Amino acid sequence: MPKKRSGGGLTGTQQAAKFLGVSVLAGAVLAGIALPAAGVLGLAAKGTVKGFDEIPANLKRPPLSQRTTILDSKGGEIATVYSRDRTVVPLKDISPYMQKAIVAIEDSRFYEHGAIDLKGVLRALNKNATSGGVAQGASTLTQQYVKNVFVEEAGDDPDKVAQATQQTLGRKIQELKYAIQVEEELGKKKILENYLNITFFGQQAYGVEAASQRYFSKPAKDLDLEEAAMLAGLVQSPSRYDPVNDSEEARKRRNVVLQRMADVGNITQADADKAKASDVKLKVSRPKNGCITAVDGAGFFCDYVQQVFLADPVFGKTREDRAKIWNRGGLTIKTTLDPQAQKSAQESIKSHIYQSDQVATAVTMVEPGTGKIQAMGQSRPYGFGKNETTINYSVDKKYGGSNYGFPVGSTFKPFVASAAIEQGLSPAQVYSSPYQMPYPASISACDGKTWLNDAKSNLENEDASEIGPYGLKEAMELSVNTYFVQMIEEIGLCPVVDMVDKLGVVQGNGTKLPVAPAPLTLGSTGISPLVMANSYATFANRGMYCTPTAIESIRTADGESLAVPKSSCERAMSERTADTINTLLSGVTDSGTGRKAGLESRANAGKTGTTDERKNAWFVGYTPNLSGAVWVGSPSQQVNMMDITIGGQYHPKVYGGEVPGPIWRDAMTGALANREALAFNSVTLPEAPKDESSGGDGDGDGDSDGDSDSDGGFSPGGRLADGKPGDGEPGDGDSGDGDSGNEPIPGISVPADLLGGAASQGAGGGDAATEGQGSGSGGWD
């Protein structure tokens, strides 16, 4: 680069030579940081200034942090997020008035001097000396730019920011040397462009483009004289001259800038006088930052995208590395969210459950075959107010969800059935399926272990009329508990463990499910709606499981494409098994417990679920091209959904097919509107013999009405017998409050802090970090 300065400034070598004189150097430094000149020589003589030549030669200029835009799958904006609201623009897109105004008020000799303005230094020294205090500084625009680079690099770390702004001789000398370098490398126009893009203008606006949009709702290239002068005046003290909070102070400061522009010949005095006579006219645009501003209730999906970015090594080796990239921003993230599906989900939620209700709902939709998350919403909005929350009920704790998810009840039964069919069990298999029975004395588990029913626990069906024998078709449609426990007694626990592993089913805290009948048959443990929707998508995809994904592409501010995590697909079961499950679950929505969820003129299948004391109700269902899960319950697990009003409608008892089912039906209907109605590859199920006198009407999802004594924190209820200590499922020994006189369901105890995020959300309508799952034996559906 040429070292000749435009405007006749000194070269870098000349600048350095000037500053190697101790007294001159110290005086310039003190003037530059607006300190009195007294004691200059003595201070410098003490050797407090670091040697000029010892300062590193190159100034690191990190990319400026900018806003990140999150888009849906059609390119529509979901939200913008940023650590600093900034949009970098070239000098040609900044009003000439703005360029002249900032130079006039901050460094009128900018085009005449080099990195340091020696005339300005002497003038400041004289002014400060005669005033007896601090009256004037002498930092050039280039020096100010270098200081802003230090601040930008410090980010939001308060200690680093303090170091970047400390008023010391060493820091000032460092700025001066880097200013010389910048002048030589960039030239005046680029320095001015960089300065206008990095500077803070108040009201959370960094850079002139963001400032122009904030105060005047227009791009920086369209700023007129008065507007440019007002913004230029803000730089000295954004809070003092803030026109939003003190228009009179802002007007005075603007007029100082206008007069200075006239004094240096940028505008005529007449133009300055005319502009000074005008009022401050604002058209303020409030900041729209963060997932709280997301459209169509997509705040939780927006937050999920951020959590995925911070957690996935594809974006950086460590979480700190990934956080730096996210905070730097400037990204355009195209996601998998389908605007039609998202809007439909939110409309369905609002029509069925009120934000102020005792209970909440979460709805998640996933595309089979791709794992693309197409909708994610809930009835309590993203926020910090009453009946709001930042806990995402749809996802695991790792991604900002509840600590343990929610017990899923009988929506777990298709996993048992698919495991049994994969083991060669016929769909015509008949079990006695009594209304009430003890758990088997023992059930084979994995690695040669055996689960033992030490507690002599019992279970029962929803209705006393549900008495076998049953075949699989009727047992699935009526959600007969005893049938599936007899099934798992025959096939053992390990095939179910293997199946849920292949389907990506984990507890809400990310751990594997306990190896016991209650969690592996009747859904007593907490699982997230996203996991449930995605696992059921495997049935729709004829046995191919695909990992869920939320991000399609990412582009940086420079137009570079970043690698993104892709969905990976593996076969979890045979096509025949999946087709059989699809046929079975189609019966649930056609004539079983999910009748109220059934879709018209479109193949659909699903399963209802209701847990102990009706603390959770579920419907998980799918078509060949979309899978969705709906959970309804109290996030704190403290509400029994009996004699309850939800969405303005009274319910004596809540069933999975009654409240979640219609939410699913309406959400899916809108999401699939104008999309092809595909068919399942159905199979013919063999008829199983059955006593005609048995069987209920199938209205109850197999729920126990909460009247058994298995209401939650139950006793160990069984153990794995391998001679090793600690294999029994932990529990608190609570035998429940029911009247059946039975032993509790064997399973697992549930921690008191079942729900909540990493931090308390006390304002979120009971969503504090200490929220508990409450009951969790949950196998009653």
TrEMBL record:
| Catalytic activity entry | [GlcNAc-(1->4)-Mur2Ac(oyl-L-Ala-gamma-D-Glu-L-Lys-D-Ala-D-Ala)](n)-di-trans,octa-cis-undecaprenyl diphosphate + beta-D-GlcNAc-(1->4)-Mur2Ac(oyl-L-Ala-gamma-D-Glu-L-Lys-D-Ala-D-Ala)-di-trans,octa-cis-undecaprenyl diphosphate = [GlcNAc-(1->4)-Mur2Ac(oyl-L-Ala-gamma-D-Glu-L-Lys-D-Ala-D-Ala)](n+1)-di-trans,octa-cis-undecaprenyl diphosphate + di-trans,octa-cis-undecaprenyl diphosphate + H(+); Preferential cleavage: (Ac)2-L-Lys-D-Ala-|-D-Ala. Also transpeptidation of peptidyl-alanyl moieties that are N-acyl substituents of D-alanine
Which top-rank group of organisms is this from?
Bacteria
| Residue ranges occupied by any Glycosyl transferase family domain in the UniProt entry | 77-261
Q: Where is this region: Disordered?
A: 683-781
User: Locations of Low complexity compositional bias?
Assistant: 752-761
Skewed-composition ranges (Gly residues): 762-781
* SUPFAM superfamilies tied to this protein: beta-lactamase/transpeptidase-like, Lysozyme-like
Q: Which InterPro entries match?
A: Beta-lactam/transpept-like, Glyco_trans_51, Glycosyltr_51/Transpeptidase, Lysozyme-like_dom_sf, PBP_transglycosylase, PCN-bd_Tpept
* Start and end residues of each Penicillin-binding protein transpeptidase domain: 362-633
Keywords assigned by UniProt?
Carboxypeptidase, Glycosyltransferase, Hydrolase, Membrane, Multifunctional enzyme, Protease, Transferase, Transmembrane, Transmembrane helix
Protein name (database record): Penicillin-binding protein
